[in-house]
């Protein structure tokens, strides 16, 4: 793996920032990641940045709106991981999409993985491992053979209406825990 092209911020520095300062730092980090990408692809437009994403998703390159969206709850809880992984991850999507033929490339395909490795010096990962319970409250606990799954009100209603859900790991059907 290459060494990171973006400097790794201090976890202790990030930990003491209030919400406003943390959001300013996120914007600065996006700007630094964009400038690195622009060195490779000078025609790359600067993305807008929003902290309006909710649920389990950490970040999103939103091409229709012309920018990057981030989840403020997950940012506050996973500060260092956001600065090291999530921001470059989304900027890599932004860069690849703006390459010639980018709209036909797979989201986590060869080109995206290459940008993650060569430009940002990171091992490409398509998903995060954050605890998302506070960002996406889901009060209904369902069980399978290997763990608990938490359902939202909507998903729980669908399950009550007869929709069946299966665990991706053990492939067992999920059942409501009534305890």
Can you walk me through this structure?
With 179 residues, the chain is α+β, with helices and mostly antiparallel strands. It has helices at residues 11-15, 19-40, 72-77, 79-98, 110-119, 153-160, and strands at 48-50, 59-62, 67-70, 140-143, 148-151, 175-176. A hairpin with a 4-residue loop joins strand 4 (140-143) and strand 5. The longest helix has 22 residues, at 19-40. The mean pLDDT is 91.
Residue share in helix: 25-40%
Structure class: alpha+beta
- Which sequence of SSEs, written as H and E, runs from N to C? HHEEEHHHEEHE
Report the sheet-strand fraction: 5-15%
Poorly predicted regions are none
Mean pLDDT: 91
Which SSEs are present, and which pair or pack?
Elements: H1 11-15, H2 19-40, E1 48-50, E2 59-62, E3 67-70, H3 72-77, H4 79-98, H5 110-119, E4 140-143, E5 148-151, H6 153-160, E6 175-176
Parallel strand pairs: 1-3
Antiparallel strand pairs: 2-3, 4-5, 4-6
Helix pairs in contact: 2-4, 4-5
């Amino acid at each position: 793996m290459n060494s990171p092209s973006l400097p790794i911020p201090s976890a202790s520095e990030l930990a003491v920032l209030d919400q406003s300062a943390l959001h300013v730092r996120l914007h600065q980090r996006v700007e630094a990641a964009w400038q690195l990408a622009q060195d490779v692809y000078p025609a790359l437009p600067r993305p807008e940045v929003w902290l309006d994403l909710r649920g389990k998703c950490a970040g999103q390159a939103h091409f229709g709106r012309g920018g990057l969206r981030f989840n403020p709850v997950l940012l506050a809880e996973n500060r260092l991981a956001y600065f090291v992984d999530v921001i470059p991850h989304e900027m890599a999507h932004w860069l690849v999409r703006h390459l010639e033929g980018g709209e036909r490339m797979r989201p986590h395909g060869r080109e995206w993985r290459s940008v993650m490795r060569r430009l940002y010096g990171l091992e490409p990962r398509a998903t995060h491992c954050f605890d998302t319970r506070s960002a996406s409250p889901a009060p209904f606990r369902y069980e399978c053979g290997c763990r608990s799954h938490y359902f939202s009100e909507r998903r729980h209603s669908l399950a009550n209406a007869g929709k069946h859900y299966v665990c991706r790991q053990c492939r067992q059907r999920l059942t409501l825990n009534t305890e």
